[in-house]
Structure formats: structure tokens, C-alpha cells
Write a structure and sequence with these properties.
Length: 215
């Protein structure tokens, strides 16, 4: 009964959407992002997040229903933003190499803008977080949408003769994604190397590699 009461209060507070409630919920999500990055999803408990946010467990449940919901809230906005960016770039009337450069630059910039939220997702195994919680997003499906946009750009470049055609587009895409995602091990937006510099370097590596045998 107590849990049901909390759920009803949470639903009512969300529906009302007061400024205080929204801001407090955002603060909890930010605290959760930090803990998830430090400890990982599996090793993080609700109590860990409550402690980091400076609230008790009962108060936390007034804002979120579960650890899984917090995880989805941490990564969803950042993922959706990148997916929309990738799909928008894919539809542009521009050469594939320009599209790929723009996508990589945008991706690395987003890693800084949404730090550490995107890295919380990057460090997790997408197969373990597939599916969706009540009312939540299917995280793995969101990732597949991004993959499809990138694969399409690479395929377009191969068909136009801009990129080499001796590498499967999907394999090339996964290699590029892996290169970008590995930055979660060392990149910090407050560090000596900024996202623009990383984006330029990675774009050069990817484009030169894909052009290889077309020269």
C-alpha cells in the first residue's frame, strides 16, 4: 500500500509539473549519471544514488520509480539528440565524406555537451539493457537507429565511389563507432583536448581509411 501511495503521489506531481519538482528531478538524474559512470549500472543501487543526491530512499521514489527508470532518463535525451542529428545529416544533399565528417564532429561535441550522460550508456552492454521499462524507451532500439543512419551514409559513399567498397558498410560503421566510444576511457571535457580537436582527428582517420583504395 505504501508503494502504491508513493506511485500515486509521483504521478500526480509529474502531471502538475511544478518548477520545483522538475528541477529536483533533474538534479537526481544528474547525480545518478555521476554514480552510474563511476560504478556501472549493475553495481549501482538506489541507496547509492540517494546518498549522492543527498536525499533518503523514500524521497527518491517520489521522483522516480526505479533504478532502470533513472538510467533511461540519464541516457535517453542524449541518445535521441544524436539519433536525430545522424538522421538529419543522412538526408542532406551533400557528399558522403562531408556527411561523415559532420556526424563525427557532432557526436564528439555531444559527448562533451552531455557529459557524463552519454558515457553512462557507452560503458554498458546494450544487450543487457534491451527492452523498456513502463513508459520508457527501448535503449537498444535507439542505438540501432543511430547505427542505421551511419551505415546508410557509408553505403552511399561506397556506391558513389567516394569510399572504398572492399569493406562491408556495417563493419566500417562499427569500427567508427568503436573508435568514438572508446573515448569514454580517457576523454573529459575539462581536459587538455577538446571535443573539436578529437572530432577533427577522428574524422581524418575515418575518412582517409574509407577512401583508401579509391585513390
Amino acid at each position: 500500500m505504501a508503494a502504491s501511495g508513493i506511485a500515486k503521489r509521483r504521478a500526480a506531481a509529474r502531471a502538475e509539473g511544478s518548477k520545483h519538482y522538475v528541477e529536483r528531478r533533474r538534479a537526481l538524474i544528474k547525480a545518478a549519471a555521476t554514480v552510474f559512470k563511476e560504478r556501472g549500472l549493475a553495481d549501482t543501487s538506489i541507496d547509492d544514488i540517494a546518498k549522492a543526491a543527498g536525499v533518503d530512499r523514500a524521497s527518491l521514489y517520489y521522483y522516480v520509480a526505479s533504478k532502470r527508470e533513472l538510467f533511461e532518463e540519464v541516457v535517453q535525451d542524449a541518445l535521441v539528440s544524436n539519433i536525430e542529428m545522424a538522421e538529419r545529416i543522412r538526408e542532406k544533399d551533400a557528399p558522403a565524406d562531408e556527411k561523415l565528417t559532420e556526424l563525427l564532429n557532432g557526436l564528439l561535441t555531444s559527448y562533451a555537451e552531455y557529459y557524463p550522460h552519454l558515457y553512462v550508456f557507452v560503458q554498458e552492454d546494450a544487450s543487457r539493457i534491451a527492452g523498456r521499462s513502463d513508459g520508457g524507451a527501448d535503449i537498444a532500439d535507439l542505438q540501432r537507429r543511430f547505427d542505421r543512419a551511419l551505415i546508410s551514409i557509408i553505403q552511399e559513399g561506397m556506391e558513389a565511389g567516394v569510399f572504398r567498397s572492399d569493406i562491408p558498410p556495417r563493419l566500417a560503421a562499427y569500427g567508427i563507432i568503436g573508435m568514438a566510444n572508446w573515448t569514454h576511457r580517457w576523454f573529459n571535457p575539462d581536459g587538455p583536448v577538446g571535443p573539436e580537436e578529437v572530432g577533427r582527428a577522428f574524422s581524418a582517420l575515418a575518412i582517409d581509411g574509407l577512401r583508401g583504395s579509391t585513390r
